[in-house]
Design the sequence.
């Protein structure tokens, strides 16, 4: 009985390893093999795990007996960089959809044509941008704004590099780039707000639209949920498993952001006021 169970476990592990090897090696987009962080998912998993340890444990421990750092100038430079960087990615994806892609359903071009490589390139840059977003959290830690490191914030920032890694690894271009297209637009708006909010109290009356950024984020998820569903009903040679993954991702974050919006703006006055002050650079 024991030997039978051992054989069953060994066989099951062998099947799992074979499936993992087939998926990660045989199904990969070989064009990105030599690109930074693309050889294996483990470095990305390690970086995301390190992010979690820093913002949840190492950072608070390091800052326990220290005064908050004044990072206003650094954060202003960072916000401007994020606006420009996300605008650049947005333009490059917009160029694909405007001139070369079918808005209803777009397969991945795995060739080394200029369009195929341009799509893979911008997909990788979008993946890399998720690591740059880590600095939002690091700034909160150094400024001792630990209340801003909500579960939503940490899950969103820590999990995205892992989720997006699969794009340049397996589907470097095509239908899924629409998600990055929308997300970069939202980031341009969001980081523009952060930059303006840091200019001082005089501009606060003009930033009444802060709450609408969260609404814009929720609208983003609704749009790309609807967009991701199209290949499920239209045959265009785009992997349906990717559509289901995007749908699951969109539904999860739509729920989390809706919950955040309800608590921040429709909940108690104290919490709503606290959240409305969240990104000011005191």
Sequence:
């Amino acid at each position: 009985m024991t030997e039978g169970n051992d054989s069953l476990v060994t066989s099951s592990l062998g099947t799992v390893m074979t499936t993992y090897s087939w998926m990660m090696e045989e199904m990969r987009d070989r064009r990105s093999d030599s690109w930074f962080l693309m050889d294996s998912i483990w470095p990305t998993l390690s970086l995301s795990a390190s992010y979690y340890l820093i913002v949840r444990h190492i950072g608070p421990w390091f800052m326990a007996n220290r005064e908050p750092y004044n990072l206003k100038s650094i954060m202003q430079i960072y916000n401007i960089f994020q606006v420009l960087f996300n605008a650049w990615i947005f333009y490059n994806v917009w160029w694909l959809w405007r001139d070369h892609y079918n808005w209803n359903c777009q397969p991945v071009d795995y060739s080394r044509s200029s369009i195929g490589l341009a799509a893979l390139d911008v997909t990788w840059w979008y993946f890399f941008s998720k690591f740059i977003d880590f600095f939002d959290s690091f700034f909160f830690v150094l400024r001792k704004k630990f209340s801003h490191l909500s579960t939503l914030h940490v899950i969103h920032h820590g999990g995205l590099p892992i989720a997006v890694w699969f794009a340049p690894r397996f589907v470097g271009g095509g239908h899924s780039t629409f998600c990055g297209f929308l997300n970069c637009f939202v980031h341009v708006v969001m980081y523009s707000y952060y930059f303006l909010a840091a200019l001082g109290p005089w501009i606060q009356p003009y930033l009444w639209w802060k709450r609408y950024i969260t609404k814009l984020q929720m609208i983003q998820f609704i749009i790309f949920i609807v967009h991701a569903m199209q290949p499920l009903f239209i045959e265009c040679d785009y992997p349906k498993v990717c559509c289901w993954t995007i749908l699951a991702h969109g539904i999860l974050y739509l729920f989390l952001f809706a919950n955040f919006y309800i608590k921040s703006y429709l909940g108690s006055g104290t919490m709503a006021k606290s959240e409305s002050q969240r990104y000011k650079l005191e």
Summary: Residues 269-282 have pLDDT under 50 and may be disordered. The radius of gyration is 21 Å. The chain is about 70% helix and 0% strand.
